[in-house]
Amino acid sequence: DAAPRMASSTGAASVAAASSSVAAFHELEHQNWEKAVAAYDKGWGGLTRQCIPEALASVGCAPGVQLLDVATGPGFAAQAAAEA
Asked: For the whole model, what pTM was predicted?
């Protein structure tokens, strides 16, 4: 009675549809964030760049150190860290 059941074709279709909608959402998010980079740079880029050297120094950024850039803008800090 405890034999495993095979997934129905309807279940497989649901998984495929969910995967497709996740991919579509990811693509939409990516496109929209790409559009926002110029506006972010205009509004916050100067302030962000101004804080980068001190922020990287405070976390001990140096060659060989691994850092995780989380929500610090369009990559200015990550680029500076990679070039350090």
From this structure: 0.54
